[in-house]
Structures are given as structure tokens and as C-alpha cells.
Amino acid sequence: MSEAKLLEMENITKSFASNVVLNGVNLSVGGGEVVAILGENGAGKSTLIKILGGIYRADSGEIRINGETKHITSSAVAGENGIRIIHQEIIMVPARTIAANVFLGREPKDRFGMVDAKRMERETQKVIDDLHLNLRADSLVGDLSIGMQQLVEIIKAVSAEARVVVMDEPTSSLSQGEVETLFGIIRLLQEKKVGIIYISHRLEELFTITDRIVVLRDGKMVGDVQTKGADKDELIRMMVGRELTSYYTKSRREIRSVSLEVKNLKHAEYFNDISFTARYGEIVGFAGLVGARRTELMKTIFGALQRAGGEIFLDGKPVNIRKPKDAIDLGIVYVSEDRRGEGLILKNDVEFNMGLVCLSDFVKGISVNFKAWDTMVEDYRQKFRIRLTSSRQLTGNLSGGNQQKVVLSKWLAKKPKVIILDEPTRGIDVGSKAEIYAIIDELASGGASIIMVSSELPEIINMCNRCYVMCEGRITGELGEEEFTQEAMMACATNREES
After folding, report:
1. pLDDT digits (tens, 9 = 90+) for 379-415
2. Is the CB of residue 169 less than 8 Å from the CB of residue 151?
3. 70 partner at 20 to 30 Å CA-CA among 185, 330, 367, 443?
4. Do residues 144 and 152 lie in contact, with contact meaning Cβ atoms separated by under 8 Å?
């Protein structure tokens, strides 16, 4: 399967001030081997990869490539040594072509010293064809889906003749079809003896595509196991340091009257003739593939997008929601899938972010009731077990799971009736997911009406009471709890009948 080790990271240690982030971590990758790094947010995965990529310098330890010790002092040096990191946040120039992005910073020159655009397109198209992708090198990156942009990052790595490729949450924005394409590319890279480091919170993916799984917890390596013989529950125990007896939490609860009713809702561009209901005490799922327009539907209900027709009823009465403030005043809140871009102000502290929506409760004229504000923050910190050094800690410095808890706290402080959760556990580790599920279940048990958009079908199946499935801007199925299967949901998501 794998040859001699392409990469060895030995006894890597890194501290920030008195905080030890990595403590004697070892990682190796062979040619043609796919090695997963698994761990909760804050386990040290990102720091380890940043050391490999030359962004951070390790305090101690050694990096060897093909047995030779290397001092990786910058991202340029990492690239010179055949290391390419595909980050979760895609950084590209949308107004330029795929070819121009692939060769960004290393553009070939013709005999006159000018950028050789034809050569870039020719060489990029060859890589595209070798990877069996349906793309043109002269297409603008800005015209591609986020998922396809992710694949362009892989084209860039292959074009640069990378020997070790790091993929950080590569499927978080991909449709199921794009995931299968990605896995096909990974297998082609394995045939070329490229070593791959694969970071993902989706355990099912690891069992599909990886050879070994390295588990980190609190900056230490606590496991290095062959995927073939790995046990999912044991991996989770290694990650979180305890048994997760209730990964999904789904209480028996009273489902009450209709809270929200949407009739024939229409958007000029994204969807048409959408009708559904949600009830108090109920968790209603919205499933579908990328491009199904679930997010656009929820943003329209919330008033962030303008509706072109249809009606919205709250507690049986028609409401006119023209902007998010109208929805918030009515008791409808929307927790965006993009917590970093739309949910939080990362350069401000936790206290500021938690108080944003209910600012009027604490600020009257020039008077600020800091005691009440602090009490609210402390209440949610304890209730949701948010890990903070203080309420003045910058939100951008928190782990993904703790950031999501801050977003939830911000909205729940408003005591809403209807809570729309858009991909509430995206990019969150297993332990934090379990905690978020428990919070969602508690909210529904307390009588709130929950609408949960999720691309993870096990999440829908194990958390929801009913589910609507969307495909290309239409609702193509409504399933009761007794009808929940991944096959039934995928049949509706692709708008086809089960065979």
C-alpha cells in the first residue's frame, strides 16, 4: 500500500506563552498513503499543519522529508519541499481564470519575459483532464461553485507536483456528487504515490478514504490506528477522553400547535411555490444537496432576502417580514451556516457578541447595565459549557464548537419562538456536536419551534420529528419520522423515485 515515509514529524512541541498547544506529537505519511488527523477543535490539528506549512515554527522536534531533515521556515519553503496545504477557507482570485489561479505566484514567462497565458492554460487543462474533471482551464473561478473551487485547489497542488497534500475539511462545502469526485481524485493521487493528510470531523468519510487515523487530544497524540480495524466508538472515546453515551439527544416531548406556516413563498431567482409548517416543541429538518436553495429559503423567511410572493403566518396570523429586524421582533431568529462571516464579529470579544441582538435590554441612552449584561453572558457560559478564559476573550480565538455556542447564546438571549438553524454543526468536532445536539433538544423540549437545515442525513434522521427535502428550489418530499431513511431522503433530494 504505502512506500517509505515521505514525511515524518517527530516530537513536535509548540507553546503560545504558557499554553502548551502541541506536546511531543508524531506524524508520518508514506507514498500513496492517506492519513487522517482526528481530534476535537482545540486538539492541536491546525497548529500541527501550520508548522508543516511554515506558518508557525515548532519550539522543538524535527521534520524529515524522504529521510532528510528540513527546516520549514515559510510557506514558500514548504512549497519548495513539495508540501501543499488546501485550507478550509478557499483563497482565490474570483475575477481570474482557473489557469491563472493555479499558477498564481509562479507564472511561466515566454521568451520576451511576458506571462505565458497559453502555456498556463495548456498545462492546467492537462491536469484537469488527468483528474477526469469536467472543467475548462479558461473558466473564471468566480463562476464556479464553492465545491468546484475546492477542486481547483487540488488542481493547483497537482500542477505544482506536490508530494504531500494536506486537505483540511475538504468536503464541508461539497455536494454528494462532488465528494465522490474528490474521493476519485484522492485515489488517483495515491496511484501517483502522493502522500495525503486528511482532516475531517466526518467519521464516515475516514472509513471510506483513509488508511490510518491519528487521534489528537489536548495537544497530545493519543492514537495511531489502521482504519480497517478501527472502531468508531473507540475513536470518539480517544478524541473526547470519555464515553459519549448519548451522541444524539432526542427526548420524547409534546408537539403543540403550528408556530410558523409558509404558503406559496416565492423568490424571483432562487425558489418558487414553497409551503410548509413548523410546530412548537418540534424539530423540523430540511435536507437536500448543495444548490437545493434551503439557505436562500431560510434567509427569505428571516427577511435577509426579498420575497417575490407568498405568505408567512406566525401563530396563525399573517406577518410582513421585510428585513431581519422584523423577524427578530416577532420572535424568529436565524443562525447562519457561516458563523465566522455572518454570525460573529471575530475581532470583538465574547461579551460583545453575545449581547448584540438584545443590546436594547442593556443599553438605555448613554447608560449601560453592565451587571445584567455580565450575568447573561455567565448564565450562557455555564449552561452551554463554553470554554473561555474570560468574557473579554476575542471570539475569533475560540474553537469552532465554542464559537457556535456563542452564536446560539446571542440569539437565545432574545427568547425566540422560532429558531432556524442552518448547518448548526458544520466544522465542529464530535464532542461539541453532541453538546450542540443536547442544546437543540432542550430548546425543543422547552417549547421552541426548531427548523434545522442540515446536509448530514444522520443528523436529520436522529434529531428531527419531520423532514422536508428540497431539490433545485422546490420541496420534493415531506417525510414523517417513521419514513426516515437515507435512501428515501436522497431519492427526494435528486427528485427521483426509489427503484
Report:
1. 888 888 888 888 888 888 887 778 888 999 999 888 9
2. no
3. 185
4. yes
